[in-house]
Amino acid sequence: MTTAEKLAAILAAVQTDPGQRGLAHDPHDNLFTATAGDFAAACQSIAATPVPHLVITTGFYIPWATPPAYETDGPLGTLFLSRALTALGGFATLWVEPELESILHIGWREAGYVPRPQPLPAPTHRVWIERVGPATDGRYYSMRGRDVTAFHAPAPAAPAALLTASATPLRSLGIGDGGNEIGMGKIPHTTMVKNIPLGAQIHCRIPTDDLLVCGVSNWGAYAVAAGLFLLRQTPPPRELFDPAIEQQILEAMVREGPLVDGVTGQATATVDGLSWEQYIQPLIRIRELLDQ
Q: For the chain, first and last CA: distance in Å?
């Protein structure tokens, strides 16, 4: 397979709709077709940067969960992409709420992750992974139309000095799976409405330069990480794409955080209501593609 074919296969592995959210309800005009080319463009932009430094924000708080907590989709992928960047000689700066930051540290500990030492280079990219954003009315909504504005606005912002350290505007990437996340503003509202059941209400109107829509947002982080290793022609650390280690990290963050499944609202080591066997299949497929 050529590099382009492998990138396409990686994207295909994550662009499914296991939660039946309507991501591709219209076969000709949907959230996948509206972002054709964005995945490859995002990977190429980051991979072509000699020392990439991504400023990443994640975190979707579920106030009705048992207990109320941030969901498992987002943090796990954020840690994965951070670890990938370190292996490639890059950097990740995470800007999240303090409560979630402490949970991410639990994941880092389980992964044996050691961030690269200071000083950091100027940021090169801004990334949002499963981070809800404001709809047309300025309110923040869950996929089911619940108003969660009180728990997400305003979003944590990186210090202005960090974001203005770069000589050029940061290229931005949004990763989401439902239409209510930052980045989804790149998708035409008419497309959102015809595919997502509550699209007219929940559509986040904040666009990003590139947008990766996938069945689970964590999967998008797996795909981007894989794309970077592929384009850099660098074999990834074997432990990075190890499903057992990924499960270990998730279990620790749920147990000690806690984190909760965003669909069931329960503190279980699952993501978006999927069994672990269902959830981990794209990572297994991506690893197979990298090994070819």
A: 8
Per-residue tokens: 119: 């000083």
Q: Is the dihedral of CA 231, 232, 234, 235 positive or negative?
A: negative
Number of domains in the chain: 1
Task: Please state, in angstroms and rounded to a whole number, the distance separating the CA atoms of residues 191 and 200.
Answer: 10
β-bridge pairing 125-129 and 91-94: unpaired
Q: Which of 41, 42, 287 is nearest to 173 (CA)?
A: 42
CATH number where 47 lies: 3.90.1640.20
3-class SS of residue 42:
helix
Collapsing DSSP states into helix, strand and coil, what is residue 97? coil
CB count within 10 Å of CB 137 equals 11
Q: What are the pLDDT digits (tens) for 178-222?
A: 999 999 999 999 999 999 999 999 999 999 999 999 999 999 999
pLDDT tens by residue, 73-106: 999 999 999 999 999 999 999 999 999 999 999 9
Range of the domain at 252: 3-291
CB 99 within 8 A of CB 70: yes
